[in-house]
Fold this sequence. Notes:
By secondary structure, the chain is α/β, with parallel strands linked by helices. The protein has an eight-stranded mixed beta sheet, with helices on both faces. The protein has a six-stranded mixed beta sheet with strand order 4-5-3-6-7-8, with helices on both faces. It is built from twelve helices and 19 strands. It is elongated, with a radius of gyration of 26 Å.
Amino acid sequence: MNTQIPVHRHADFESTVDSLQSAAPLVAIIGRPNVGKSTLFNKILGHKTAIVDDVPGVTRDRNIGETEYRGRVLRVMDTGGLDPSATEGLLARVKQQTEFAILEADILVIVFDGRSGLTPLDEEIVKLVRERAKPVYVAANKIDTAQAEPLLADFYRLGYSTVFPISAEHGLGIDELLEAMLSHFPLSEDVVEPTVTARIAVVGRPNVGKSTLVNTILGQERLLVSDEPGTTRDAVDTTVTLHHKTYILTDTAGIRRRGRINRGVEGYSVVRAMRALGRSDVAVLVLNGQEGVTEQDTKIAGLIQKQGRACVLLVNKWDLRAQDERAKDQFVHELSRRLPFFHFVPVLFGSAKDPRIIPRLFARITKVVEEFSKRIPTSHVNQFLQKALDENPLPLRAGHHVRSIFMTQVATKPPVFVLFVRRPEDVSPAYLRYLENSLRNRFGFVGTPLQILVRRK
Length: 457
């Protein structure tokens, strides 16, 4: 299988969604709400990837993970609870997402609640699946004892030759299900996965346009978008190829003020967003241009800084404001006042709904990724250091200058420098800020944090 979905085409820009390019078969787990789809998804992958809760409809977006089973690679897609009769609102959007999943998948697994028996909603889902000529496996979940197996008879009425009794929570019956699925695909040579240029986390407070931006990049509504704050609950990864470079794009749940975060699903969503930020290279911080820079925006920016991630700022919904340079200058001034520690971060104004913004955004991301990975030779660093000392000597301490020995870069992603001096305590924070600004003026480091450590000779 080597399918590519064209997304946006411009004179100098082309992007393709690469999530379907892998030769590994893609399995979509579908079913009505709260039958255990996400629990099965997590059990197959071996770690808690999808959010699991007793509230129906917790999974709203499609979430894809990859696992290896008996030497074979398998991709698994979790979907939201399906209601085929839904015609409007969020349930209709979930239905659309699941229909997309059915189209993308090579294999379909319909999960039923084995203890509840077959419901009219289950039968509607089966009708929807029969329209697609794809391998279908029936999994009756919550069958964790031999006494429960007679409940399977109800599901054989659907006409499928095999019903797999499983307990997703306890891992029972899953091996048999996986082996049956893999029998559809002959063994093939190992596929060389593309090198990932960068992991990008799209972050921000709820309802600022994060999922809208991701959907514009992908050219399809993979992530649910609505006016209800907090629609995205999982941190959903998607692989995207732009100009022959591969990126992993993660849309995250909106991060609210601490006092407004629920302890259940939403709390875990925020934890997942934080983890996604921690494993990313670049954060795209989305702001609402209509509302200005809020206190929560500053806190999220602080989290990006604390994690040491590179960053690009997108001021979204700018098309809804008066579009003049004065308004833009005022907003930039507000950014510098509210986010002084982000003075090195590139800022982009526009609308997340407009495909024309994508080339401009990725031009900035590409530049920031290069800067995030930049390493300066030690000889160049010390030439810079000598010039910086000549222009602004270290302050006098006890009647003499603090003698700097040398400086070297010891890490990238983010760049870290070490300044060796005889007495580290004599180097003030103000002088370190001077060195940081001088490093940026000399070497760039656009969009990436810098750290300068002081060590004794």
